[in-house]
């Protein structure tokens, strides 16, 4: 594989793997959310077939949305010489530069799709998971709460009466 081909292929593969990794982490987080917060639905929603479809869609989405990298990447061969007496070297320059409005829009959209939105999703899912794991159960009825308050007040009265008898 020559340097010209590598110049276009490496940034593309790098972007695809990066974006697929982020989406995979988001998919794992959704799976954890269902397993912890909605365990009865998890058996029906998280099937082996759906998992395979989600993995295939993640990679397909990454492959398709990264294809503009081929048009954004620029390959140049330039001559380089340190001084007049030194030999001339050929320098292979490979860059992905956002110099036009469409390329800036592409990188902004990719940043939102693959960094900001997954981050917001992860934060929301893990806040829900933490609430589920660490909060006091909210299903307790008012009668139970009022009985607990009565019992607490009875204990306080009992403690006060014990102290008042010590004279």
Automatic annotation (TrEMBL):
Primary residence: membrane
Stored Gene3D superfamilies: Rhodopsin 7-helix transmembrane proteins
Keywords attached to this entry: G-protein coupled receptor, Membrane, Receptor, Transducer, Transmembrane, Transmembrane helix
Cellular location(s): Membrane
Membrane-topology descriptor: Multi-pass membrane protein
UniProt superkingdom: Eukaryota
Glycoprotein in keyword set: no
Gene Ontology CC: plasma membrane
Sequence ranges assigned to domain G-protein coupled receptors family 1 profile in this UniProt record: 1-167
Membrane spanning residue stretches: 51-75, 105-129
GO molecular function: G protein-coupled receptor activity
Keyword Transmembrane part of the UniProt annotation: yes
Family under the similarity heading: Belongs to the G-protein coupled receptor 1 family.
Protein name stated in the entry: GHSR protein
Taxon lineage: Eukaryota, Metazoa, Chordata, Cephalochordata, Leptocardii
Gene assigned in the entry: GHSR
